[in-house]
Structures are given as structure tokens and as C-alpha cells.
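Let's practice the habit of predicting before peeking. Look at the sequence and jot down your guess about where helices and strands might fall. Then scroll down.
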Amino acid sequence: MTTHNSAVLADDGIRRREKRDWKGWAFVGPFMVVFALVFLTPLAYALYLSFFQEKLIGGTAFVGFDNYVRALTDPQFWEAFGRVLLFLVVQVPIMLALALAAALALDSARLRGASFFRILIFLPYAVPAVVAVLMWGYIYGDQFGLTSNINDFLGVDAITPFAKEWMLISIGNIVTWEFVGYNMLIFYSSLKTIPTEMYEAASLDGAGAWRTIFSIKIPSVRGALVIATIFSIIGSFQLFNEPNILRPLAPNVITTFFTPNMYAYNLSFAGQQFNYAATIAIIMGVITAVIAYVVQLRGSKSEVR
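Done guessing? Here is the structure:
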């Protein structure tokens, strides 16, 4: 009897495996193909390139981790990395604080014309990045544009956005102007998911506007804040468009290795050092992934608490 039951169960297991529904893969399959072609394949190829080097004699040769050793001892790479790290530490908190303040203001019932201001704040993000940088480049120009007009009016060079000590701040201003609206929308959407019962309970307990903000609203958008922070970290380490477009206006300040991405780009397309450029890209990818993961992990622990 036991043997018969075992045989029946085995037959049922075989039939279940035979009847497995593969329709889900029909939906996921196209994405997986595109994902493999546009993400995994270039990543694998870049990793492959990083282990080779173009020799003057003998052509391309396998060099193992020599390119990585070279990158980790390259002062230009570390100067570029330190610059974007400073940019990240200063610009990202300011941008997120402004975005959160804007979202809280829009979410409050005291602001009239909230829909208009929401579109107004988000509008810079809709401007293409290249157009935005060109526009600000014209504003910053000390020989033309708004900055030049202000300096001429004052009779002194009071504003010098392209000076060495101000360049990173000038770029940070552009990035902040571009992405405050994007992050504001993330926070605002998160605020709209807060149940109205929480506000009613806070009102019954006698909580004022500021108490409601710090006890209900800000804790409720912690998850959105973590996501926005991760996106901002990735964007900071990928800083390229702004300094690269502004470089013709300040060639003595913005070098070819102003940021790691600019360094890799110029190594590849100007210096024909594709293997070393791929190494720089891989190292920056790993650093970005590790920092983003740490931020996500700490954010998840904070939410659990």
C-alpha cells in the first residue's frame, strides 16, 4: 500500500512539473534580453578590457590586475574622486533639504496655488541637461551674459563663477536647480500616502504644524529620502555633463580629469587608452555600488526602528 501511494505521489509530481506554466517568462523574457544586451554585456566587456593593455610591441596583452594597481596609485584619479566626493557631501544634502522643504510647503494646506508652484519647481527637470548647462554657462560668463553685466554695473569683478575656488559651487548650483523638482516630486508623492487618520489623531492630541511635520511627515518619507539619496549619490559619482560642457568656457580650471567620468572619457576617446578607461569605470562602479548599498542598509535599519 505504501509503495502504491509513493508511486502515485511521484506521478503527481511529474505531472505538475510537466504542467508548469511558462507564460510568465513570455512577459519577463523581452526585458531580460534587453537587460542582457544593454547592461550585462557592456559591463562584462568593460571588465574584460580592464585586464588587457595595448602594448607598443606585440599588440594587446593580458596584464591581469596591472591596470587596477595603476588606477589605485594614479594621483589624477584620486584628485577627481576627491572632487566628486566633496561635491556629494556638500551638494546632495542641500539639494535634498530644499526638495523636502518644497514638498512640505506644497503638502501644507496653507499654500495657495500649490499646483502652479509644483509645476514651477519641477519645470527645470524637464529642461534637457545640455540646454540647462548652456543656459547657465551663458549666465556665468564673465565676458558676456548676466554675470558680466552685474560686474560692469558694480565696476568690480564681484562674481566670478568660473574661478577655481568657485567652479564646484557653480556646478553644484546647476545640478541643484535641475534636480530639486525631481526629488521634490518623490517626497511629495510619499507625503500623499500618509493616512488622514494620523493627522486627525495628531490634531486631537494638540500637535501643532511643526510637531506634525517632525513627528509624522518626515518619518513617513524616510523611505523616499533613502531612495532620493541613493539616486543622488549615483548621480554625483557620474558627474559629467555639467563640467564637460562648461570646459570650453573655463579650460584652465576644468581639466580633463575634473571628474572620474571625464577622466575615463578623455582617456578613451582622446588618449585611445580604452583598457585603462574601462578600469576607471569599473572601479567607480564598484565604489558607487558599495556606498549606495551602505546607505540603503542604514536606511532600512532606521525604518525598522
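How did you do? The chain is about 75% helix and 5% strand.
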